[in-house]
């Protein structure tokens, strides 16, 4: 009697495919994954930690964009917060109608807040240890800035998540047109920016500006975004952004540059909204082809994996950079680490990206359980 053959367990790509609900929009998950990679790689490429040659433990932050403005167009591809908020609006709108609204909000907020609390539980004692060990103030400021600065995004995300029922009701009534409302406030902010922004206006502009792409995501989820939207948003964003830079004097960099008068991100400017429009327009145009590609398990599996660990990746990516950077301190650094971001620094930094990525993978293996328990 011949024994029945033993079937090998399915590979991880097959497991990801089997675990994906049929109704899930894979293209939006792919957009979120690309946005996440853009943010992470962008931070790793512009966050230089420079060591004082006479006091190696004294660190300060710098950016290659301060020394090579020709690199500003590269920032357009790594500043992907518009797609991030778009995907967030889509996901929130798809889930808000399921079950009790209060429990829905609690679940959404828990998934966002829990990984941040874990990050704080690690870094607050670490900062106290740095202070007790006599680390220079500038070093502690660099660490604090790199770890906490990305978290402003989460505060805005929390606000928009809480407002999702109101924003969804507006979309159901008027379609995607409410997404134009933030443009007026951002234009007002830009008009008075040169005379100094009152704190209240600066704080208000941030969530209002990002409500634009968030509302478009809600509109896509509710099938209120017409097919022609991509063909409108892409050229409108490209021509509008070009006009703002070439004719109106807006900074060409999509991210803040130390030493510049003002940043397109602090608070978001009209150029930032134009960039988001162009990115989302391109996504909507390629979406049908992308949907076909993502039906292949090998293409879908890495997208699904990154989405499952999105908050962990976002919270810990700068920690990975700092760990690699601090590890180089005893050796006096290496090109692309701890040196000023001039000359060939960017080429060397590209070589360090795989090391950052491996370190981040280790951190995700350690801390992803907290994000998973919050889902």
UniProtKB/TrEMBL annotation:
InterPro entries per UniProt: Acyl_transf_3_dom (IPR002656)
Membrane-spanning residues: 30-50, 70-92, 112-130, 142-163, 170-188, 200-221, 228-250, 270-286, 298-326, 346-367
Domain Acyltransferase intervals: 28-365
Single GO molecular function: acyltransferase activity, transferring groups other than amino-acyl groups
UniProt keyword list: Acyltransferase, Membrane, Transferase, Transmembrane, Transmembrane helix
Protein name: Acyltransferase
Source organism of the structure: Actinoallomurus iriomotensis
Lineage: Bacteria, Bacillati, Actinomycetota, Actinomycetes, Streptosporangiales
